[in-house]
Design brief:
7 strands; Rossmann fold; 8 helices; alpha/beta; 7-stranded mixed β-sheet
Length: about 210
């Protein structure tokens, strides 16, 4: 644990916008992030796993290691993740490239768990991350994101433009700093109303 904190701090010193925190996420936040995920979820994509705090929590929830797709741009973290989770699929790419990187079989994952600092990213990049992630999610799949801010880190207009909606799952004060978790999912498709009858035409019942 001490070596992970030191490694995280060094990465933050080198690139604070990419890492966004001086310490890894705590166990309480990890439990909240993965609380809706189980073995039945199937494949899980994790964006920015860092030292693997959420990854360990996913495995404890029953997600098989070979069902994990870890997307980690930082070489210092990727090498460590490869050693700790050798059966997981590891992609050393920018998360904004996820749409074309996973392969030709979209809509297979049941969840995306994101440790990315979306608040420090331009809207265009956040849009690419979300659009690429949902291209690989089943219709009922969800995107889980935490934030240190007071509201969802994805602006409402961006969510609306992508056909998504965010729900606040909860908050934990047992993290440094305190954090909240949001579930982002596709908006329900409204049922089409039956066409209105022209005025003056009454309904008739056929006789047997």
């Amino acid at each position: 644990m001490a070596s992970d904190i030191l490694r995280f701090f060094r990465a933050w010193m080198f690139d604070p916008l990419r890492v966004a925190s001086i310490t890894p996420s705590g166990a309480a936040l990890a439990r909240l992030m993965v609380s809706e995920i189980a073995a039945s979820t199937g494949s899980v994509i994790e964006l920015g796993p860092g030292t693997g705090v959420f990854t360990h929590a996913l495995v404890r929830q029953g997600v098989s290691e070979d069902k994990l797709i870890l997307v980690e741009k930082g070489a210092e973290f990727a090498a460590m993740l490869g050693q700790r989770f050798p059966r997981a699929r590891l992609l050393c790419i920018d998360a904004a490239e996820i749409g074309a990187a996973i392969g030709p079989n979209p809509a297979q994952a049941g969840a995306v768990v994101s440790g990315l600092p979306l608040l420090s990213m331009p809207a265009k990049m956040v849009s690419a991350i979300l659009a690429g992630s949902f291209a690989h999610l089943r219709d009922d799949g969800c995107f889980y994101q935490f934030t240190y801010g007071p509201r969802c880190p994805v602006p409402g207009k961006l969510l609306e433009g992508l056909g998504l909606e965010a729900t606040r799952m909860g908050q934990t004060l047992r993290n440094v700093p305190p954090a909240a978790v949001y579930r982002i999912a596709r908006r329900p498709v409204p049922l089409q109303a039956s066409p209105a009858r022209p005025p003056g035409i009454a309904m008739t019942r056929e006789r047997a």
